[in-house]
Write a structure and sequence with these properties.
It is built from 13 helices and 22 strands. It has 498 residues and is of the alpha+beta class.
Length: 498
Amino acid sequence: MVRELSVDVVIVGSGPGGAVAAARLSAAGARVAVLEEGGEFTGADFGGLEQDAYPLLYQEHGARSTEDLSIQVLQGRTVGGGSTVSWMTCFRTPASTLAAWEAMGVEGVDAASLRPHWDEVERRLDVHAGLPEDVNANNGVLRDGCSILGWGWNQLARNSTDCPNLGLCGMGCPVDAKNDARRTYLSDARRNGATVYAGFRVDRIVTRGRRASGVLATGIDPRTDAPTGDTLDVRAGTVVVAGGALNSPALLRRSGLGGSAVGRRTWLHPVVATAALFERTINPWSGSPQSIGSHHFAQRGGRMGFFIETPPVHPMLAALAFPAFGMEHRAFRAALPRVNVLIGLGIDGFSAEEPGGRVRVRRDGTMRLSYPLTSRHREALVQAMKAMARIQLAAGAQRVMSLHTRPVEVRRESEVERLAQAPFGPNHLSMFSAHPMGGCAMGRSPKSSVVDSRGRVHGVDNLVVADGSVFPTSLGVNPMISIYGVASLFASELAAKG
């Protein structure tokens, strides 16, 4: 069945970017429709089981990866987008990152412009620093190890109200304590008359001359990805693309918009991990998932920086991530209550030596992502593994294991250098990303960027991108608050112009 809609604004995507844009524009009186590829669920639908959550709430059922299968990409797909499955870590964009963007020609996206938006977003999401009792044993390893080594660490802010510290954030909050995009800005937009259409994948943007005239979308079953037979033909005065990094550039490429820069300069904060076995109980799946972080190595004098955080470790994800086989793999899983995992996130995109990733589309229109690993990645991520091993040993670990295909085992400080001698590259080492960014970079020139400094696509009068795909580099921090802030800035100025 073909349904036709006519609205003032159609927004593609319901995550932080799309949700805050919907709230701002609907508050200004615009008739707004939000289209979301995933389904809509509430706390009552979240049972805390990985086998249900990954297929239901993540892109490609949790199996999204680079085309060479070297980096697994965990990216939300549901009403609320990545905010529904986030670990609630809240950072504003670092001043050093904003300064780098300004040097690259991005104008007016600075702390002064973003501060009122960040202030409002943090009030709406109830962002607050955690309490000492929120630091579970898993995060305590990072805190204690850094303290012993004299390295900097911080307790992290998060967006929750009356959180019971269940540790299930990545599978959707079953008690709706997480102030995600669905419960906040989409709720605000709905009160203003906006309508959310879940289970609709936008195939392409329709244009007439220099103007976007709407979108065409296909209904899909979020549980199976099977077509439902429904089609949406949405005609709109303004189109806002907020499908997130990877999906937004793919949509522009399918639509033949944005020029040759679309999909280029995609950044991932590529992640490596080390797993440590302790004598004491850690229970890494329990409690606030990410309460401690360290940016001690974020600035490294021209070399790629990295930051360190602590992920929650649930049984299924642990089984998939740990690369050993047979009895060794079984022993690791049996010891999971005594395991801590640290992750090191590379801060990519700040050197001409890094080409970045690239988003293309296959003949059937689906997204494919390449991400070449360079010598800068190797140097930084090996240093990250060495630093994490030192932290875990300092905190009392009996042994530390890398996630190489043949894991490297470290039992004492003198053995840490073994990590540098192990193979590095596609499929030698388990790598991950939960922070895709870029692909529709901001900038002045249509040859090297896709949008201007207010998200307007070069060459199209009424097409705006408002999500993390506009970042010219990675951030060096978890991106959620940056996405909310930049999208709020873009949408507020768009609303002011009517």
